[in-house]
Amino acid sequence: MPQIYVVGHRNPDTDSACAAHCYAHLKNILSHNTPHIPAVCGTLNTQSEFAFERARVDPPRVIADVYPRVSDVARRDGMRLRENDPIFIAVKELDAHTVSVIPVFSEADKFTGIIGIHEITRYFIESGLSERPSYPFRVDNIEHIIPGEILKRGKDEFTAPIMIGAMNVESSLARIDSCAEKPVLIVGKRPDIIAHAIARDLPAIILVGVDRESAPDFSLYKGTVYLSRSDTAESARLLRLSVPVRLIANRDPITLTHDALFDDAKSILLNSELRGLPVMEGDRFLGVVTRRSFIEKPRPKIILVDHNEVSQSVPGADVADVREIIDHHRLAPAKTALPIYVFSKPVGSTCTIVYQHYRMHNIKPDIPEAVLLLAGILSDTLLLKSPTTTSDDRDAADELSALARISLTEFGEEMLSRMTVLRNADPHTVVEGDFKCYREKQISLGIGQVEVMSLDDIDEAAAKLHACLETVRTKLRLDWAVLLVTNVVDERSLLLVTDFPSAEKHLAYKKISDRLYDLPGVLSRKKQLLPELLRVSALAAAADLRR
Ligand SMILES: [Mn+2]
Prior knowledge:
With 547 residues, the chain is α/β, with parallel strands linked by helices. It has 17 helices and 24 strands. The model has no long low-confidence stretch (mean pLDDT 91). Bound molecules: manganese (II) ion.
């Protein structure tokens, strides 16, 4: 399906997440043909989460990248077979070269396997080797595949070898009797052999060259009698092709998951002997890919909001088809092959520009979008106080607060309160708001984390935070208490620690001042900080033992 992602920059802030949602919303009102999907590449900060909660709107989808997936090229419209369909249909389709692999479904519409040239070939080779192979037959399929008509209908399904009653009577009777399994008999107007078949209760008799009027009496016979209009050889050939595909379908094929990368899926298929593979979403069948599906690599379509540089964009943006740019940053976009729509204006927030697009198109934002646009503006302009604020932002904020029916100042303050400003914040809330304890060897340690708008005011706050950390350490009887102060947008953290020299001296981080460290690139307590703290705690514990 042609879809366009409207995506903000990496480490999404409130402006980029709200702009992505609201611009996609507008595009979906303006064009009904192409779904525009709002997306962010990264987890939302607490402030953005609050904005979406307040607007009662699902936050944009989190995407890791926009590299093409196998689902982008899977054929969903291809031929499908039911398990009980005759092999004949599969052979015909494969011969017509319209497909190289056909999915097979149960009567309950559950995907059960595939059938391709491999399976057909093996069917004829293997049934050629076996002495007298038995096949599962369905009367419905026989009726469908062999020209003719049913004279009498027996059991719907049966398993039997095929036998032709063409020899002299004695040999034919002997052969019928010598079969391990009762055969389906193809025979002309030969009363002795037919009488024997009835007496032996064979599952089916295919009569060739016999019409309804001249057919013998089958009143005592319980099996199926079929009047074939084909000759003996042709009836035998078609009978074998009437066997249900479930006999030969590959029930355990290699499958591709729908979100497998295009390049990975391509190499899996090209490195296999296979001509096609099914694509699954969980246990749901999505479609089929063949070698032809991979001739041209699709380019996902994206609209960039709140950024324009590829290095700040979602991974894969460099090879994607960028359709539009809506932004308020310096311009350094990648070259495009075709002309695109770019709207860039040095205002305080991308949400201001998105709102101006609603106005350009004479569309009044609904309350949820008004809330989100306002949130983006207030967040990026720090309540319209930042020096980047323009009259465009002020006008937009006024109009949006009226549309959203909320007080600009109250909402703005609530927004900002979601992002801690170290200088103003209560140190106990900062340290204990999100505090977790761990134990390694004999060392107990506690780690708090706080997400802040800026790290610039750490000097003003450090003394209070250190004092508070020490209080918490004593209260919880910990060996060591630390606080990770993180700025998501700058991708940087600072680490404040209580006095614990035997562990601290092993820390791999750069010391800024007493009990304060710089951790560029560290955002995760669990994945990045904790392993390092456990490592140095173990060293401290070992040193303690030696003493
Ligand atoms: Mn912005």
